[in-house]
Amino acid sequence: MLYCVCLGHGIILLLFLFSSVVSVYVEAYDNLLSGPVAQYTALSQKIGGDVQKHVRNASVLTSLLAPMSKVIQEVQAFREKNRSSPLFNHLSAVSESVPALGWVAMAPKPGPYVKEMQDAAMFYTNRVLKDYKEKDKMHVEWVNAYVSIWTELQAYVKQHHTTGLSWSQTGPVASASRGAPAPPPPGPPPPPMDLGKSSGGDSGATNHNALFASINKGADITKGLKHVSDNQKTHKNPVLKAQGGPLPSGPKPFAARPTAAASPARTLPPVLELDGKKWKVENQEGAHGLVISDTELKQVVYTFKCNNSTLQVKGKINSITLDNCKKLGLVFDDVVGIVEVINCKDVKVQVMGKVPTISINKTDGCHVYLSKDSLSCEIVSAKSSEMNVLVPNKDGEYTEIPVPEQFKTVWDGSKLVTTATEIAG
Length: 425
Hints:
Serine Threonine Protein Phosphatase 5, Tetratricopeptide repeat, Pectate Lyase C-like, 18 strands, globular, Adenylyl cyclase-associated protein 1-like, cell membrane, C-CAP_CF_C-like, CARP_motif, signal
């Protein structure tokens, strides 16, 4: 018997092949669907608008794994097409975590993969809670229902599919429907994960632990990574990982789609290594959990063309440079010189200790999270937009303050005097 389930916007949640006798893990999964999944769907229908459209069932099962990547891309593309939606944080929470559906192709630890994808959604679920906790409790219930889907899925996977998806040893060959031919090869992978929107409507406090939850995982990941593992190179592509194939380039939210006649872009290998006194972090795509821990004061970090990734730098270091990076999250302890952000787009920088100067040049979208010890930091910006500095409050949360982008210059009789203006750009 082929058992299949669809969740929201045509997402194929799980496919199992079982014998005619209903297995224990089928019943357990039915309980998951009838519980948090059903509650999440019902609340999405009540909220309406783009959230209702996002959750609408629309797919017909035609193969086992081929539609997985396609529908994940559709969910994430729907979010990108609706960035101005008043429910954008809801859409982003789903978009960030939806690759968790690929656990069926992950081995030997699919449970931790689901947890990682759930953590990726926390930044946006916390935003929903902050925006609606005093306005509409239905949205709070929606968040709780959605988060519980992944929490219970983790428990389910741990109990019944600890080292990978379990298959029947006696049933017929897996197919999309009874009597259908064998499925074609899986399609392309989902696009890299979005680290969050940097512009518009982001006021009030934001919990920095939630923002960088995907990289704050304890001491086990901070032991001097000098090379990128194969798992980091492909963990956003669970279907192709199961096949052992290469990782093709998926569509990027801020890149124009190439025409049919365009030649494929050259893909350079990812780098994370110490070259003399310079830590080089280059060409990382969708690499969450990059950590540099074996540092010295004389060393520098140069990060180049890293997209949809997170990097943590431990200890005290001379300087850090982000160059041509998109949607990169950086967390560091102490820098005695300068942190430079050049030619970047939608990056987040968090200071855990101290830094004297942060320079932002030719960058569109930069969030700087200061610590209590770094409030005296000088932030110098030029030719940049959508910059925000987040200052910690006494309660541990943050207040977001925009950096001026427009200025007024007047002649006072002896010299030019320039001041920031609050005129909207």
